[in-house]
Specification:
Blueprint (H helix, E strand, L loop, with lengths): L11 H9 L13 E4 L6 H9 L5 E6 L2 H8 L6 E5 L13 E7 L4 H4 L26 H7 L2 H12 L4 H15 L5 H11 L11 H11 L2 H15 E11 L2 H13 L19 E7 L3 H6 L7 E7 L3
Parallel strand pairs: 1-2, 1-4, 2-3, 4-5
Antiparallel strand pairs: 5-7, 6-7
Helix pairs in contact: 1-2, 6-7, 6-9, 7-8, 10-11
Amino acid sequence: MEIARTHATVLLNEAVDALLEDGQGAESTAADGTYVDGTFGRGGHSRLLLSRLSPLGRLIAFDRDPEAVAEANAIEDSRFSIRHSAFSHMNEIQGGSIAGVLMDLGVSSPQIDSPARGFSFRFDGPLDMRMDTTRGESVAQWLETAEVNQIAEVIREYGEERFAGNIAKAIVARRQERGPISTTTELAQLVADTVKTRESGQNPATRTFQALRIFINAELEELQQALEACLHVLQPGGRLAVISFHSLEDRIVKQFIAKHSKDEYDRRAPFAAPKVMKFKALDRVKPSAEEVAGNPRSRSAIMRVAQRTAA
């Protein structure tokens, strides 16, 4: 059964303001620039950004999900283009040509709420979890052959799950006894049977599902590559805004901005001029109480904003 799906864009106005405004609410010539939406999703940020760009402005969007690309292709605006690709491919854009980059790292509600995509333990469906369903192996396919230590490492590293070893052993034992796990319900029940204690209000399978999704889509590696690409494509004064939803993502973004927000000295050449900072950290934004009340999925969101320096 297909679930009725809607998507509430997190930090919608705050993200677009962060790209376009100068801190005093003025947009000046910023709306004439070329911008990147690294995760089109269902287009909430892109559509608002387009509405505020001048006729000279441009927006390039990226997304791995074929359904998101189909949604983007419905936008009839000569200033807009969509690329069916991961946002790490931003490095293919001409260097220094981009006025702002937005990356919303959350999984969209239509993805989560579609049983066929296999992202959620709340619905019975194939254990897929691929952002791009046209390529790569699904979670079910990977679990068919992965060794216990490989599964445990993934669940421990990407899910911060203290019972990772027990869960991995249970997955392999189930595979040997009754064949591989192929559905979300099967995996969720196996984890529930294995994890006997869990934080109040959290499903036992939450961390395992998160870990497998992150791993199968190489999400953290893609994020690191995309952040490095921003150093290449952003023009001096260009803005970077990244919305993350869990500590693993936010830690990468925070450390990246911090690393490039200070002058670097070469200890081997103490009298040499330092490499000047490449970013200036501007803001850290959380959803308002009103937004969280209207969209509980936004409660863990953090947006970090930085500006490319002239270096």
